[in-house]
Specification:
It contains 18 helices and no strands. It is mainly α. The longest helix is centred in the middle third of the chain and has 20 residues.
Length: 318
């Protein structure tokens, strides 16, 4: 999660007027000279420990310098002094997020949320809050809450690929696969080739394919599983389940092909070898069937496999 842009935070700093003596510190901040801003304001802040604006400016400067611990200390003090600036809470939330203290991030943002409406550009500030809180809820695996915030953020500004990607993964985790795919495909269009986005597109298609397979909708299942394969051609389970659909359609040649592709990716899978043995058995390829069953039995000594070996051995002798 990137830091909030300096110019955006500066708007919050200027939401309350600074005394003339402190204009130089504000100027340093606006110029991106955050260490100079801290040096300029620190003597007066030490002399006036209850000065909310001073703690706010110092905290936001520390945040920009990636000193999250000192940012939290200064901004927490500004909160204790009943800061009325939204930037205080947004900055505090960002610092907590950077330190992976996601619960505290959400708490800070919740506390500051009513103040966003009083900003010069309230929708812009609300987007920042919703985005950051959505990402924090995502990290906390509170996926329903993440979905609500990220959908609201996208309604304000739907241009960030990461918002769509996080939303899509959150939707996948609450088993809303159609909505997940819509968000993930948008993310991939905005950032082609992103590995995690592509991975979850494959996962969503795979889960939809399994549902169709369970419902005996074999053509639909194959269509969905092929899409999963296209996005993740290294997933052996996709080929295994494609073979299942082909098997139910009695398309043994395609089932055999898919199982061999699965076996290339999962050479120690007793399930794949057992299924391959069955496909060969259906086609009366006794030697290949017996070999597959025996290889599976070397991995898993199950009664079912022993029975299959004996059965095919008997068929071969006839």
């Amino acid at each position: 999660m990137r830091l909030i842009a300096a110019s955006a935070v500066a708007l919050g700093l200027l939401s309350l007027p600074a005394l003339p003596d402190y204009k130089q510190a504000v100027a340093y901040y606006m110029q991106g000279r955050y260490d100079k801003a801290i040096q300029e304001i620190k003597p007066d802040l030490d002399a006036n420990p209850d000065w909310e604006f001073g703690h706010r400016l110092a905290g936001l400067s520390y945040l920009r310098l990636k000193n999250n611990a000192l940012a939290i200390s200064s901004l927490t003090r500004a909160v204790q002094l009943k800061s009325k600036a939204f930037s205080t809470y947004l900055g505090l939330g960002q610092a907590y997020f950077n330190m992976q203290r996601y619960d505290s991030c959400v708490d800070a943002l919740n506390q500051g949320e009513p103040l966003a409406a009083s900003e010069k550009e309230p929708e812009k500030e609300r987007y920042k809050l919703l985005q950051l809180r959505g990402y924090a809820c995502y990290q906390l695996q509170k996926f329903n809450e993440a979905v609500i915030d990220l959908q609201a953020a996208i309604r304000i500004s739907g241009s960030d690929w990461a918002d769509y990607s996080h939303l899509g993964i959150a939707l996948y985790n609450v088993k809303r696969d159609d909505d997940a795919l819509q968000a993930l495909l948008k993310a991939l269009a905005l950032k082609p080739g992103h590995n995690t986005t592509t991975e979850y597109i494959a996962k969503a298609y795979f889960r939809k394919g399994l549902s169709a397979l369970s419902a005996k909708q074999y053509d639909q299942s194959l269509d969905l599983l092929r899409k999963a394969r296209d996005y993740n051609p290294r997933d052996g389970f996709v080929y295994y389940n494609m073979a299942e659909a082909y098997l139910f359609q009695k398309n043994f040649a395609e089932a055999e092909k898919s199982l061999n592709q699965a076996l290339d990716l999962m050479p120690r899978s007793a399930e794949v070898l057992q299924r391959l043995g069955l496909i060969y058995e259906k086609q009366k390829k006794w030697d290949l069937s017996l070999s597959s069953y025996q290889r599976a039995y070397e991995i898993t000594q199950s009664p079912g496999l022993k029975e299959a070996i004996d059965r095919v051995a008997e068929l071969k002798r006839r």
